[in-house]
Amino acid sequence: MDGAIEKVSIVISQGSLEGIYPGLIMANGARAEGMEANLFFTFFGLDAVHKSRQKRIKLASVGNPGLHIPTWIGGLPGVSGLMTRYMEDRMEKLDIPSVPEFVEMIGDTGAGLYACKASVDLFGLGPDDFIEPVQDKIITVGDFYQLAAGGQIVFT
């Protein structure tokens, strides 16, 4: 065995731009390299595949050390929206797709897109709340571990 990674399973548990994009970028890169890739959306990461929420993902501006602004400034009205628009503009200039486009693109490459059953139940959601590729792929953690067997699991 040469140690090459052949399969990666990525857990997305945060519902903010900076919580969702790393997993999408990693999954896209894995598929581009010919690796099998599975994305498991849990807790607030479900927003990335939720029909009515995936177009409204925001940057977390409160307590985000990567922004290098005081927490109280991040909490002012409009700051999250302003920072989100700024990041979206920057990403658009770099040809980085929006969350809905990126999720669809990754799904089209054959990557597995799965919602965590425990989180779906916790938030009182159902199959109709999710985009089409995920509606019939609400799985348990045990199911996810079976899918991930023999590969790397990455938490973003």
From TrEMBL:
Q: Which Pfam families match?
A: DrsE_2
The record's section on InterPro entries has: DsrE2-like, DsrEFH-like
Q: Which Gene3D superfamilies is this protein grouped with?
A: DsrEFH-like
Q: Which domain of life is it from?
A: Bacteria
Report the protein name in the record. Answer: DsrE/DsrF/DrsH-like family protein
Annotated organism of origin: Mycobacterium servetii
